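Lab meeting, action items carried over

1. Structure of the two-component assembly. Owner: GW. Status: complete.
Input record:
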Amino acid sequence: MKKIKDIRKEIGKIKKEGKIIGFVPTMGYLHKGHISLIRKAKKQSDYVVVSIFVNPTQFGPEEDFERYPRDIKRDIEILKNEKVDLLFNPEVDEMYKEDFKTWVYVDEFSEIFEGKFRPGHFKGVCTVVLKLFNIIQPDKAYFGWKDAQQLIIIKKMVNDLNIPVKIIPCPTIREEDGLASSSRNVYLDERERSKALCLYRALKRIEQLVKKEKIYNREILLKEGRTIIEKEENVELQYLEMVKINDLKKVEKVEKGTIILGAIKIGKIRLIDNLLIKKF
Amino acid sequence: MKKIKDIRKEIGKIKKEGKIIGFVPTMGYLHKGHISLIRKAKKQSDYVVVSIFVNPTQFGPEEDFERYPRDIKRDIEILKNEKVDLLFNPEVDEMYKEDFKTWVYVDEFSEIFEGKFRPGHFKGVCTVVLKLFNIIQPDKAYFGWKDAQQLIIIKKMVNDLNIPVKIIPCPTIREEDGLASSSRNVYLDERERSKALCLYRALKRIEQLVKKEKIYNREILLKEGRTIIEKEENVELQYLEMVKINDLKKVEKVEKGTIILGAIKIGKIRLIDNLLIKKF
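Predicted assembly:
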């Protein structure tokens, strides 16, 4: 369905039946990461809604909005196979009227890491997610840990604004070699693809140092990680940081709820990944 | 009720019964303007919720948050008399946790008129209204024309963010002499109170010029209005403007949906008023 008023009619019916609605917001070009979110939603809800909307307001003017990969036919096949109950795939002008002026943002959390390299990105994300929540009115919404900062920001928005939706975080899904599944992986040629793995290798090395060598010190861990990435030619390390999962503040030593966040750039392609350090 | 979780439990029950929920957000110190909103809500809904919350985030640092008039006992009596079903009167720390960081704002609309004299005011208003909507989940919410810019901004926010609440605008209620009912009128002593009327006189004079003299020209109308206010000693005219009701843009001639917005200051007391020009 492409129209908000059609969705409202449908959702109204479902709500009256007392069904639990699970919602998976996506930008389409679905991969196995999305499918894992959908399957979790199917398990935990009576009725699953997926949205496919490449949201222009979360792309910067120099970014890849126009060339972001799209394949709605293939996506619809996948959704049918997964027995998704409802697809919402609006056009841009259905979501943003010409005189649109209302924005939602999470201070501080939105300015760092991804926000520093993509100014305005999280303002666009929060605004569209809130709009989608208001249209779909789900009981639960599913987000992947792959976009860790996004997940943390959305949880913060939901808490701060008392939005009546439960956010369900889902693990990052990886390709066989460890690369985090992402629609943007399609941009990578074979050589770039093998270089892209250095970020994951750095994260795994840090995890190993923590778990096997019992090294918890921020500087030592990050230095080791950075070295791995910097060895790779034509890869730009944008950030590699060790923070607390709940407030994104830097930590000096690995503690409960520490996450390592990283971003690299290969040519024009930005890739992000992260690793939550559990049991150490 | 003071706790969000108690409200959610209660509202959950009411929703299950399929009842229409009407909501009147207030800052308390209820006057006949509020009562008219409540009565309209009672007529149009099955279950009426009133909130009383003096929202700190919509007051500037130099403004009257601390001394804003409060009388919860008297308010509760009024709500009982009006047979309001539920009162939500949270403490500040129930609405804003220490690490609160999420804000909603409507660009442009929030920067002009009241927004110019009260920077950040409408960001605070939008944020708290959205929070209240998410907590109460009303079908309809009632706002007075007295705060015309606030009403227009909230309607814009609701449209832009697809919030599933119908905004019901209600006419300004006035004292016998024409002064718009406002909790802040209590600040006025007898002399100030009589001076305060000059804004309403200016608005009525403009209305008369339009209706009786068929004068539609912006400059002529506003000049006449300003002259009336400027004659009054110790009254500062902050703005007097003629705008379109839907986008707050200045109009050169009175047309359908024209509103005159004004604000004056008497000593430390700011007062606003407005007049929608109907049938001319």
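2. GW to write a short summary for the group page. Key points so far: Residues 26 and 34 of chain A are 8 Å apart (CA to CA). Strands of chain A lie at 21-26, 47-52, 86-88, 102-106, 140-144, 166-170, 235-244, 258-266, 269-277.
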